[in-house]
Design a protein that fits this description.
Layout lengths: L7 H6 L2 H47 L2 E2 L7 E2 L3 H7 L2 H32 L6 H9 L6 H11 L6 H8 L15 H26 L3 H9 L4 H12 L1 H16 L3 H6 L11 H11 L3 H30 L1
Antiparallel strand pairs: 1-2
Helix pairs in contact: 3-14, 4-8, 4-11, 5-8, 8-11, 11-14, 13-14
Length: about 325
């Protein structure tokens, strides 16, 4: 019989000194386990606290100050908020961000799910096609921008040449047009990120029990009915995760726009993240940049919490 038994009768039979020794050994084991746990999580927690949590908390104070990174921040109350209300460039950047997210999120979600379902079939060479679909995601963003800038070239780009070939006499100027620059950026972003979210959906599809599809087939369900009643409900946790990640990534997009259009022409592709970068690092106005950051932070929080609530209601 184990000496660490929890039987009260056995405790009464053991001498008091032995019971005290057992409790000390159990306490030592618990302390070692607690120390081991903290040893594993402390480095990550320290990094998160110093590099993420600390700056976020400081942001809430700096947003109410005037600070140029030299000297001490000067508390100005709601001056930055009043400045935001009358800042036309801020509202343009906010609308551009919503425009980008409103198109990028649903299109990427649908394409990545469709591509995952296609490459989840038993096709010849599917491993190659999976790799090819994922390849753009880890390609250098500068290389991606340069290639697509050449593809979208108004005069010599193959995209406009193809449009002329099919009969369109005046194809768009793309990155030099205030109307077509944002759609072109969205196309490049969708092309680049679809492969990554495809892999997430592939993992979710492979976790769906095949018995569910077999039972649906026996009940006479066609492909569309199985998709709607079996596949999509089974993918709800994956879809929720992908949607949250897509939403956050869309609202804080910066690198692709920075290297492709730099917010131009004019302010047609200027988004909140780039406006924060301009105000903070180009104009040295960190107080106002922090105020804009609070708006972006609140926007991400509201949308993410709404998605959490909606997902929880669906699960019930």
């Amino acid at each position: 019989m184990s000496t660490l038994t929890a039987d009260p009768a056995a405790d009464r039979r053991d001498p008091p000194g032995q019971r005290h020794g057992q409790r000390r050994r159990q306490s030592a084991i618990r302390r070692r386990r607690t120390l081991s746990g903290w040893t594993f999580i402390l480095p990550n927690f320290l990094g998160f606290g110093l590099l993420t949590l600390g700056p976020v908390l400081a942001l809430f104070y700096i947003a109410f100050t005037k600070w140029t990174a030299f000297g001490s921040p000067q508390f100005t109350g709601l001056d930055n908020a009043r400045r935001l209300i009358g800042d036309k460039t801020f509202w343009t950047a906010l609308l551009n961000t919503l425009y980008y997210a409103g198109v990028h999120i649903p299109v990427t979600l649908v394409l990545s799910l469709g591509l995952a379902m296609l490459l989840n079939q038993k096709l010849r060479g599917r491993a190659f096609f999976r790799s090819a679909a994922f390849f753009p995601y880890f390609t250098s963003i500068v290389a991606v921008a340069q290639v697509w800038n050449m593809l979208f070239s108004p005069e010599f780009g193959p995209i406009n040449q193809f449009l002329r070939f099919i009969g369109l006499e005046n194809p768009p100027d793309w990155f030099t047009s205030s109307t077509w620059a944002m759609p072109a950026v969205i196309v490049v972003s969708i092309w680049r990120e679809t492969g990554y979210y495809m892999l997430l959906f592939l993992a979710g599809l492979q976790a769906v029990p095949p018995e569910l599809h077999e039972a649906a087939k026996m009940d006479g369900a066609n492909w569309l009915q199985r998709l709607w009643n079996v596949t999509i409900p089974s993918l709800r946790p994956t879809t929720f995760f992908v949607t949250v990640m897509l939403t956050i990534g869309s609202f804080k997009v910066l690198d692709l726009i920075l290297v492709m259009t730099n917010g131009g022409p004019g302010t047609s592709t200027l988004v909140l993240s780039q406006y924060i970068y301009r105000m903070g690092f180009e104009r040295n106005d960190f107080g106002y940049a922090s105020a804009v950051s609070l708006v972006l932070f609140g926007l991400c929080m509201v949308v993410t919490i709404t998605q959490f609530i909606y997902n929880r209601r669906k699960e019930r």
